[in-house]
């Protein structure tokens, strides 16, 4: 698809949804709600559907992706669906030898530690992920006026998995490359920015109404290191999809000290984790951006009254903000009671109805 043929905005049937209005900082009928990791994890119907099916295999079956993505929309009445996938899917699609180990996470057979290892990272082509195109098409047909959020992993987080060989607490190999081999590091992130951009474009062109860039591990960096060694690659991703006109969301964990820089990277909506009050997060992000967040996911294990008290605190912090999307400050925890999520959506809707 040429630049002239690209869609210039979100699909018309979702354009007036509360979620997209909030992303554009327009008046909304109520504060929209969705949850990171709402598709899967805590839902018994998800666990039943996934029995005997490996995570990456389930991500490559449009029928399963569609059903799993729809499950929380039906159950919780959230204002947006989040595409069911995993951030390493585009890496698997280009031939990286990796798997998602239960209880561990993504594990890479041949970590990238040298320039020669970069040969593993070829560009992503749409045909590599034709199952994504199929699933997004099925979803947008069934979701109707409910927006679908596409997503991808940010270059830094993908790089950390590839360099470490799996999840890491301290990111030793990653930081060793970042500081010790800056040219190799820059090329690695540039390649990943291209792969991530291509993956998001596939989802948008298939019908996604918004996209979110997850940078799960970027909170491990200082502001200066983020600015000089990571932000350019994230900015490249946001710039690559800017012409589509869909809202672009940026979220990372432990990023309170990076919020202003994450805003500069180019997103339209910046997500805050639970460690920073939303009014303070908005001050750090600066004007012209919507804010997403940020109830502590662990609060959902408390009694209903306590959950509502904490949700009220989030809503009060966002009271004067133009453009607030209610979410958790990270993903839904696996043992969360689904009924707690359903009640929370209803509570936010009731408390903010205009």
Give a written overview of the molecule:
The chain has 354 residues and is an alpha/beta fold. It has helices at 12-15, 18-23, 44-49, 55-59, 62-76, 89-93, 130-143, 155-164, 172-180, 182-206, 223-229, 231-240, 259-264, 278-285, 304-317, 338-352; strands at 81-82, 98-101, 105-108, 148-153, 210-215, 248-252, 269-271, 290-295, 324-328. The strands form two sheets. A seven-stranded parallel sheet has the order 1-4-5-6-7-8-9. Strands 2-3 form a two-stranded antiparallel sheet. It is globular, with a radius of gyration of 19 Å.
Main features:
single chain, 354 residues, alpha/beta, 7-stranded parallel beta sheet, two-stranded antiparallel sheet, 16 helices, globular, disordered N terminus
Number of helices: 16
| Beta-strand percentage range | 5-15%
Can you tell me the overall shape? Answer: globular
Structural class: alpha/beta
Mean pLDDT: 95
Radius of gyration: 19 Å
Portion in helices:
40-55%
Question: What's the helix and strand layout?
Answer:
Elements: H1 12-15, H2 18-23, H3 44-49, H4 55-59, H5 62-76, E1 81-82, H6 89-93, E2 98-101, E3 105-108, H7 130-143, E4 148-153, H8 155-164, H9 172-180, H10 182-206, E5 210-215, H11 223-229, H12 231-240, E6 248-252, H13 259-264, E7 269-271, H14 278-285, E8 290-295, H15 304-317, E9 324-328, H16 338-352
Parallel strand pairs: 1-4, 4-5, 5-6, 6-7, 7-8, 8-9
Antiparallel strand pairs: 2-3
């Amino acid at each position: 698809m040429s630049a002239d043929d690209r869609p210039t905005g979100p699909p018309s049937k979702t354009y007036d949804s509360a979620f997209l209005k909030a992303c554009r900082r327009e008046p909304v009928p109520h504060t929209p709600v969705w949850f990171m990791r709402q598709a899967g994890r805590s839902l018994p119907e998800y666990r039943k559907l996934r029995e005997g099916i490996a995570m990456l295999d389930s991500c490559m079956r449009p029928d399963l992706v569609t059903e799993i993505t729809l499950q929380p929309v039906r159950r919780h009445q959230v204002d947006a669906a989040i595409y069911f996938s995993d951030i390493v899917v585009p890496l698997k699609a280009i031939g990286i030898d990796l798997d998602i180990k239960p209880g561990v996470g993504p594990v890479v057979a041949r970590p990238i530690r040298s320039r020669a290892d970069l040969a593993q990272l070829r560009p992503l082509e749409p045909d590599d992920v034709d199952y994504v195109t199929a699933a997004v098409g099925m979803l947008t047909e069934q979701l109707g006026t409910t927006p679908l959020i596409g997503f991808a992993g940010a270059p830094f987080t993908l790089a950390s998995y590839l360099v470490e060989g799996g999840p890491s607490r301290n990111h030793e190999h990653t930081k060793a490359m970042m500081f010790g081999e800056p040219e190799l590091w820059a090329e690695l992130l540039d390649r990943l920015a291209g792969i991530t951009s291509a993956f998001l474009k596939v989802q948008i062109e298939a019908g996604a109404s918004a996209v979110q860039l997850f940078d799960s591990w970027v909170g491990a960096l200082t502001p200066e290191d983020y600015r000089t060694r990571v932000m350019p690659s994230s900015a490249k991703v946001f710039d690559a999809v800017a012409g589509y006109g869909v809202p672009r969301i940026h979220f990372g964990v432990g990023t309170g000290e990076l919020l202003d820089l994450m805003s500069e990277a180019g997103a339209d909506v910046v997500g805050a984790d639970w460690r920073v009050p939303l009014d303070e997060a908005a001050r750090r992000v600066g004007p012209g951006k919507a804010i997403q967040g940020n109830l502590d996911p662990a609060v959902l294990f408390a009694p209903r009254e306590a959950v509502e008290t904490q949700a009220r605190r989030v809503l009060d912090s966002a009271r004067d903000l133009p453009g607030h999307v209610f979410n958790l400050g990270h993903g839904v925890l696996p043992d969360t009671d689904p009924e707690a999520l359903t009640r929370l959506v209803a509570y936010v809707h009731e408390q903010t109805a205009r």
